[in-house]
Each structure stands twice: as C-alpha cells, then as structure tokens.
Amino acid sequence: MSDNRIKILPENIANKIAAGEVVQRPESVVKELLENSIDAGSSEIDLIIKKAGKSLIQVCDNGSGMNEDDAILCIQKHATSKIKEYEDLEAISTLGFRGEALSSIASVSQFEIKTERKEDEIGTLIRVEDDESLTKLKGSYPKGTSISVKNLFYNTPARRNFLKTDATELKHIIDTFNKIALSHPETHFRLFNDNDVVFDYKTGTLENRINSVFADNMLDALLPAKENTDLFNVNGYIGKPSLLKKNKGEQYLFLNKRYVQSKQINHAVFTAYENILEKGDYPFFILFIELDPRRIDINVHPSKLEVRFEDEKDIYNIIVAVIKRSLGMHDLVPSMTITPNERGEEKIFFNSYVKAEKNDFSDRPKSSSPSNYKKEYSDSEIDQIFSGIPDDLKGNASLSNMDMPIENIFEKPLPKTQERIFQSNQNEETSAFIIQLHNKYILSQIKTGLMIIDQHVAHERILYEKIKKKYEGSSAFSQNLLFPITLELDPGKFNVVKELHSYLTKIGFDIKFFSKNTVVIEGVPEDIKSGHEEKILMEIVDEYVINFREKKLDEIESLAKAYSCKAAIKAGDSLNEKEMRLLIDQLFATENPYVCPHGRPIVIKISLDEFDRRFGRT
Ligand code: ADP
Ligand code: MG
Q1: 232 CA to middle of ligand 2, Å?
Q2: Do 459 and 569 form a contact (C-beta atoms < 8 A)?
Q3: Distance from the CA of 102 to the center of ligand 2, in angstroms?
Q4: For 7-20, what is each residue's pLDDT tens digit?
Q5: Quick check: CB of 117 below 6 Å from ligand 1?
C-alpha cells in the first residue's frame, strides 16, 4: 500500500471548493446569470427569486440560446464561448470570460437549463441530478435561455448556514440587479420576488433608467458629466451637493458597461468635490468609463469587481477635471416650490435645482454700484409727487382716510410729474429692492423672481476663499490693535495657538508668546469685529481642534473652515443696505457662491411663476 499523503481531489470536491470563490451567496448567482444573459445579446431579461434566492433563482432571457452540445458543455469547468486563446484575455469585451460560473453554480445547487436558439425547431433541457449525472430532454421551449438554480448550497450545509437573513440576501440581490439594469438601459429587466413583480424597467435611455431605478425626479438632483479623450471616454451623472450620502454604497462606476469598484476613481471624484464635502460625506455618482480593454486588468479577482488601470494617473487627473468642471458649470441654486400633498398639507421642495451657466449674471441681484441706485427723494421731488393729490388726502391721509376703500385713492389719474418720477425709477432696474429678514436672511429681487441668501453662510464662503488665497500669497495685512489683548490660556490651548502660529500669522493675526501660557494679541485680520477679538480667536482654536483631530482635515483646511465659520457675520447681526450689497457682490465673486464650505446651500430662489401660482394668477 502506498503511503503517499498527497492525493488529487475528486473533481466534484474540487468543484465545490472552487465554487466558493465564484458563488458566495444568492447575489453572486444572480450576477453571473444576468451577465450571461446580457452577453447572449438579450433584449428582455426576467429574474425570478423565491425566498431571497435561497429556494429559487431563475433567469429567463430572449438571447442567442444554445444548441444541444453547448447546453451540455456550458456546465463543464472552463467551458466558455468567450475566449479561445490567451490573447483574447487581454481584450475582454464580454462580461463573462472565465467559463467557471455555470460549472460552479451547478455543483452547489439543483440546476436546470432550458434553451432554444432562434434558428432551431426544438430546444434542449439539461438537468443536473443530485448524483451529478445529467438528464437531457428535447422539447419546445421559448427562444432564448432559462436557467433555474434551486436550493443553493443544499449539498454544502456549512455554506448555507453562512447565509444571512432573507432581508439581507434580498437586498444584495436587488443592489446587483439595479447595478446591472443601470448599465444596460437598452434591455428590459423585470424582477419577480415570491411571485410579485417588484421592478419592471422598460427599455429606454440612461436617463429613463436612472429615473426608474432611483426616483422619478432623480435627474433633477444630478449634474451631467461627460468627456471624450484619446485615452478614454467618461459619461454619466454626479449628485448635486444636496444629494451627499453618508453611506458609501451610492457610487456607481461602470467600466466598459461592467460594474466595478475602483478606489482611485472614487478618490478622484471626492477630490473634485473638494470643500463641498465634509469628511464622511460621499458624493453620489453614476459614471461610465469606456476604455480600450487592453489597458485594464479586470482579471484580478473571480468576482471581477476590482479593476486595475494601466494609465492610473492620467485617468485620475482627467476624472478630477471633468467632475470639477461639471460642478463649476452649473448654478447650484436650489429653487423652492411649495406644493400641497394629497392631504392638503403644504410641502416645500428644494430639490428642483435650476440649471444655469455659472457665468450667467443676469439672474443675480444687482450690484451695489451707487450711481444708479437712488435712496432718497429730495424735498422738491416729494412736493412734486404730492402736488397732484387732493388736499383732503394730503397730510392727514393716514388718519382720516383709513376707512376709505383703497381703490378710491387711486381713482384719480396721477399727475404727469408723478408718473414721470415713478417711471424713471422703474427704468433704473438696479434699484432692485434688498432687505434683511430677521437679521438672518437677505431678500433681493432678481430677474426671475426672488433670491434669498443666508447671510452667515454667504460670508463664510467669502472668508473661506479669502483665507485660502492668503495661504498662497505672502503674509496678510494685520490690523493693529490699539490696546493689545493679553490672554492667559490653559496649556492645551496655548500649545495649539503656538502650533498654529505661522498659519495664524499668514491670515493676519499678530500674536506674541510669553511664558506661563500667556499670549498677547497685537493685531487681527481685518474681518474680525472689534471687541470680539479674544472670543473669536478662542472659537477658531476650538473649532480647529475639532476639524483637525476629529474630522481629520489638514491644517490649512481645518483653520480655513474654523476661521470662516467663526469670523463670519452671524444670524442676528444687523446689516445696512450697503453691507448687504457688498456681501452679495463678494459672494458672487467667489468660486462657488452656492454652497458653503460645510456643504449647506447659501442661496435659494423662488421664481415669479411660483408666486403667480400661489396667488392663483395662472
Ligand atoms: P463565461 O460567461 O465566463 O463564458 P459561464 O460559465 O458563465 O462562463 O458560461 C459558460 C458559457 O455558457 C458561456 O460562455 C456561453 O457560451 C454559455 N451561456 C451561458 N449562459 C448563457 C445564456 N443565458 N445564453 C446563451 N449562452 C449562455
Ligand atoms: Mg458568465
């Protein structure tokens, strides 16, 4: 008797082990079967699920079908029609290619194929029996292929025990179904779960498909991103900042129509969103990259999820640029509508974004140019206005005519002079009204209606960009304090201020250090309100520590955000008209006037149409 310890595994055991790589859960089967149907050129694909795929996964398609020989062959190991020689592997254009999915799935389930080609009169049914023998039947079946996978892992109980709850497994299935459906809008997909139709995605454009997979108004929340380069083409949509997601699951990257994951591409997109994102926020995106298959390696893992790019750096840089351009090209102003729901309750919607070129200045509050802005009437002008009004209305009009119906006052035609003054004022469009609401919001007339600006975040944006510029330039101008402020800090704060000294100097603080944790503020940046120097510096230090230690921003970003937040005017600060106009001018001179450094909206618009609707004018 031989005492060799090494034995070649019987094929059925080897298959089951190999199957573990391809088939981890019902979702993996769904993915492989759907991809095969797509590779077979199907225009209609049904996925039928029972008990979260644990009792049945069936995919029916109207694709090419298989002849009898292929139907038998396709469940053999390494049986594939998609590559013939090694060179083909370098340029994969199909979703499958390893030829191991069906053999793996068949080895761990009760497996059956019904298939019939268009050109054939009769089709084939192949069933894998529990003893792994094959049963073959000839018969008339629908054109295309139907593969049913019953009782997955019935013969590998350990694996079956590893499956999660039905809800979890079903969620995985739906995620994959949706990803594949998104990447093939030209294909009609249906999902049946325990006999109910859950999804029915009709054939259409990518845009149609996005709306059916997500929500009817999803496109309103997205910005298009598109670029064709020599190296690759990218096309798709990115989320407006309002659609930032805390979970990482909402990034859809398709490489040559295959769903893939790439840390590099994710990072490129995050980088492009820059300060619109807080740490922990992830932008939503659906991006399709088309790239010569020879320049990528998708063969890294059997699930074919990970990709490697040959030209990683170039691709990274181009993606950053494309996303930045999309974000910059679109006016990110949420426009507000108020719509009653079925119960008559009014709901405010902010998500219908107005798309406008960033450099379209027509729809912004008028600037503060003083020459064409009229504040007061001279005495003689006032006399002129009132000269045509009957005496009994003049002077005591406010008291004695209170009860008079208002239309009577205007019955008499206005005198010529009065008309002229009113008209000339109207022609000076720039006298657009501007008011401050509750010392918090600035309301201003714009061409299309009303613009509302949150004064704090607007100022925050202005200061944020200013600080960032100061870092790049030489040291900033510091406003010397007449009475330097001496502060005794606790050792922790003292050290932070010391660490930050060079940065603080760059942005305009003039701080001296003394022993025993004492600092003296001798000068501050011009934006800091006098009387608040000490308080604001301390707030900046506290906020910096949070940004740097907890949110893990870098020093400059931490300080810029802390400074802009703490030095900005607050809700509650009263502004005069000149200050408001200056704020608006400066805001629209920033790179991104619509989103504050923390991602909150700065501006919303309400259109005249919305007003007209509300007043029943339409
Ligand atoms: P791969 O997709 O990597 O080639 P699979 O094991 O998934 O390997 O499939 C093996 C072969 O079976 C495929 O190459 C294809 O020829 C055939 N096949 C599988 N599913 C279908 C289908 N739905 N319609 C037509 N042919 C199919
Ligand atoms: Mg396959």
Answers
A1: 26
A2: yes
A3: 7
A4: 777 777 767 666 66
A5: no
